[in-house]
């Protein structure tokens, strides 16, 4: 085995791509404890929660009003009741509008607290007002429905929100917290580029 000792490896003038290894390379090993630097961050990213209970009507998807941010790395989440422009993107209320194109992991939890069983309680992720995934809980009266999904965002106009749906007559009260933890939350992080 040979060893090359250098301080910097760079491409020659006029070349922008560097390849490490060849068709024979299957593993590139770093010494134990080595740190890789200058990699892109997994941002934008945010996490928010609902600070108080919310009541939703029956038989319709209702946007969950996640009003309190834990963090929002790039200011891409609108935690207010009106549409605002964030990073040049028109962002509806309680929506995440990432300003960088890529694949994002989005997750959310909604907690229903009712005195009687409901036929169906749904939590869903919506993109630009259209449902992209959902999780259904049924025949329960106190339960949290959680979902996560990988979505593609264009970085210029796409936005995402979490909505709840109940078939219970008169709607349902969503319980935001209990004495120990948050029961309703919404978060996202960038995974990779487009």
Account of the protein in words:
This protein is mainly beta and 194 residues long. It has a single domain, classed as Jelly Rolls, CATH 2.60.120. It has no helices and 15 strands. It has a five-stranded antiparallel beta sheet, with no helix packed on it. The chain starts with 44 loop residues before the first strand and ends with a strand. The model has no long low-confidence stretch (mean pLDDT 86).
- The spatial strand order of the largest sheet comes to 4-1-15-9-12
CA(first)-CA(last) distance: 38 Å
- The share of residues in helices is under 10%
The total of beta strands comes to 15
Q: What about the largest sheet?
A: 5 strands, antiparallel
Q: Into how many domains do the coordinates divide?
A: 1
List the helices and strands and how they pair.
Elements: E1 45-49, E2 54-56, E3 62-63, E4 68-72, E5 77-78, E6 84-86, E7 89-91, E8 95-96, E9 102-118, E10 121-127, E11 130-137, E12 140-153, E13 160-166, E14 172-174, E15 185-192
Antiparallel strand pairs: 1-4, 1-15, 2-14, 3-13, 5-8, 6-7, 9-12, 9-15, 10-11, 10-13
What does this entry show, briefly?
Helices cover 0% and strands 46% of the residues. The chain contains no helices and 15 strands.
Can you tag this structure with a few keywords?
Jelly Rolls, 194 residues, four-stranded antiparallel sheet, 15 strands, five-stranded antiparallel sheet, single chain, mainly beta
């Amino acid at each position: 085995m040979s060893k090359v000792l250098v301080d910097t490896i760079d491409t020659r003038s006029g070349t922008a791509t560097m390849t490490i290894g060849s068709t024979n390379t299957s593993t590139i090993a770093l010494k134990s404890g080595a740190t890789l630097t200058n990699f892109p961050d997994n941002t934008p990213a945010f996490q928010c929660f609902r600070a108080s209970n919310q009541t939703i009507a029956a038989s319709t998807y209702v946007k969950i009003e996640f009003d309190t941010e834990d963090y929002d790395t790039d200011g891409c989440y609108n935690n207010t009741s009106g549409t605002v422009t964030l990073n040049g993107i028109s962002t509806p209320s309680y929506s995440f509008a990432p300003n960088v194109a890529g694949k994002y992991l989005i997750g959310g939890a909604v907690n229903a607290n009712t005195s009687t069983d409901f036929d169906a309680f749904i939590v869903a992720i919506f993109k630009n007002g259209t449902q992209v995934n959902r999780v259904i809980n049924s025949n329960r009266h106190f339960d949290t429905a959680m979902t996560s999904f990988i979505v593609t965002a264009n970085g210029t106009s796409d936005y995402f929100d979490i909505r709840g749906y109940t078939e219970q007559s008169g709607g349902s009260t969503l319980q935001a917290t209990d004495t120990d933890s948050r029961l309703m939350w919404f978060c996202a992080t960038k995974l990779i580029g487009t």
